[in-house]
């Protein structure tokens, strides 16, 4: 088997985004080790990083997003050195119930073990993401109140 190089790592990274964009969570997971760690700077309401360990927990996390939103992402910048990929990703997220859209870019750092990702770090604009989800919550409340009136 050929040693992991920048092209293979890029193919893996692009594969994760293509699978996510097509809604194929099991395909996304195929690019990760079973004991992966997912870390996100903007994941919790309390403002602390969100951390998930293991493929089953990551699967649950991904399903929680895909259950309420359509999303797409593509790698815009890629650098690979010493088993670590650094990327800039362009993405969008469409909240199905409200129709609200979040779009922009974020950074990822992926640490590889063999040809799979063992650690994924997502760096989002935490204020922007928090504002989006608060707006979604408000809009859903308004929509539910309107439904109750009808």
Automatic annotation (TrEMBL):
Residues 17-119 form the SnoaL-like domain. Pfam families: SnoaL_2. It comes from the Bacteria. InterPro entries: NTF2-like_dom_sf, SnoaL-like. This is SnoaL-like domain-containing protein.
